[in-house]
């Protein structure tokens, strides 16, 4: 697989690893989202209320869960933020 295909497979695998631990296998509950962020993006949550704010920002359809499309928005936004901060080669 190419690097991009590998990255896409990792995104899918990471989402699936944390989704469905409680309830729907195709979404992340707030608790699952928090666990995923604590393990995979530990520097993202600085304050106790950050997960609530993040959940509210990601949950575009208002179902109190984060589906894969909403998860990808988080990853894309963080990637763009990192790209803007990284020095260009």
From TrEMBL:
Residues 46-81 form the EF-hand domain. PROSITE patterns: EF_HAND_2 (PS50222), S100_CABP (PS00303). InterPro entries: EF-hand-dom_pair, EF_hand_dom, S-100_dom, S100/CaBP7/8-like_CS, S100_Ca-bd_sub. GO terms for molecular function: calcium ion binding; calcium-dependent protein binding; transition metal ion binding. Keywords: Calcium, Metal-binding, Repeat. GO terms for biological process: endothelial cell migration. GO terms for cellular component: cytoplasm; extracellular exosome. This is EF-hand domain-containing protein.
């Amino acid at each position: 697989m190419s690097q991009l295909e590998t990255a896409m497979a990792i995104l899918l695998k990471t989402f699936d690893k944390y989704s469905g631990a409680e309830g729907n296998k195709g979404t992340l509950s707030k608790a699952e989202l928090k666990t995923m962020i604590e393990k995979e993006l530990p520097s993202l949550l600085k304050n106790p209320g950050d997960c609530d704010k993040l959940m509210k920002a990601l949950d575009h359809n208002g179902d109190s869960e984060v589906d894969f499309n909403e998860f990808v928005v988080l990853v894309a936004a963080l990637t763009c933020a990192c790209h803007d901060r990284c020095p260009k080669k």
